[in-house]
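Below is a concrete protein record.
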Amino acid sequence: MKIFSSTNWILGFLFFINLFSLLFRATTQTAMGLIVLIILIGAGSALAAYNVNRIAKSNNSLTSKIYYSLVFSLLLSTLVLFFWSIGPGPLYDHFGLGAVLFILPSAGIILLVGLITGITRSIQLKRIGGPSVNIKALNAKLTIIIVILIFIVSYNPLVANFAKATGSASFCACLAGMDSCISIVTQYGQGQTKAVAADVKSGVSICENSGQCNALADMDVLIFSILNDPQSPDIIYAIKATKYLWRDGQRDSAVPLLANLLNNSNILTVRREALESLLYIASLRPLSDEQQILRSILPLIKNQSGVDDYTAKIEQRLSAKLLIPK
């Protein structure tokens, strides 16, 4: 018996074309077209039914044939989930409403069609000796492939849920969608796990290494709390985090806390890091507002040792004038 018949090639081509269309929609987060789902379900179901029916005619044991019906149909269903889940969008896009309404039912239909067809035909043809196929080796290979695909598909939601359950955003570093994961873990509100100081350190590390910084805005309350304690062991990470706060008013709230560290911290590294963040935040403002912040900072560091370079930078910036074209 030929494993790849012409019918297999045609149905397989249609199935994989729509799988890649599914991947494209998951990647670009565009709407799911009904025609894609119809062809995907139709081609997948036909491919499953055709192949399990062929194996049902072989001279293998009933158990082996039914097991093949299960693993082959499950492989096609898992491929649907796999091609949807590897898009780079947020976790809730991968395993939220889109998956529940469209992807899981599509995969379920393909699995049921193949399994029901396989069981029914295997029982009907159990006494008929057909062509010989080494189905045990084929079943073993299919099982290994399914295990690998299921691990890949389930990895993101499992790690995200574990991070949420433990309240530790550090586990999010293992994910591609780190920002979404950290946001889930660190949201403040009813039924949500509050962030802890270690999550600020983890969030800053992820931000600096991967550029995924949005989740730090969800930790603003914790960041400001750490800034109010100059002796906190996480003070450096809280200072660095202020540069990545992007929601309205968050940086404004950080400015007086950072300025307070210039007077209340006796650690040079802390004062220099606070100055670095203050100068960065000030640089994002219009020139007049920037200079207002710098004027408030300058008296605090004028006679401090170890920050002479920042004093020079601030004085140079204060001497700048806005050129108005004539």
